[in-house]
């Protein structure tokens, strides 16, 4: 006797989190998990949506506050911020950060590598400007 089992296709890792964040970003104000569930594609259980929101909160991608007897949720990070968080988490789990970063950078397509170099230059210039401003503020405090 052959039995047939109905299996649903597994979602890609992080797909539901991205969908929840996308739904939250369409809201003008903090919203309930039920509101998020109503805007999600598919037929997710309310508890699944709450679990996803709790995971996003643990990742500092959303915040919640009590409103009445339940919570309302607000996005903190957009999809890019969540992806960056995941990248940092993977990097933090590795023993040899330098090797991981070197492997990552050398595997980038030329355009992405150029973009990364430009972003690092801008970040460094911003830090230099902050240091100059801090030094100037210190000089001003010392005079008088």
Automatic annotation (TrEMBL):
<keyword id="KW-0805">Transcription regulation</keyword>
<dbReference type="InterPro" id="IPR036388">
    <property type="entry name" value="WH-like_DNA-bd_sf"/>
</dbReference>
<comment type="similarity">
    <text>Belongs to the BlaI transcriptional regulatory family.</text>
</comment>
<keyword id="KW-0238">DNA-binding</keyword>
<dbReference type="InterPro" id="IPR005650">
    <property type="entry name" value="BlaI_family"/>
</dbReference>
<protein>
    <submittedName>
        <fullName>BlaI/MecI/CopY family transcriptional regulator</fullName>
    </submittedName>
</protein>
<dbReference type="Pfam" id="PF03965">
    <property type="entry name" value="Penicillinase_R"/>
</dbReference>
<keyword id="KW-0804">Transcription</keyword>
<dbReference type="InterPro" id="IPR036390">
    <property type="entry name" value="WH_DNA-bd_sf"/>
</dbReference>
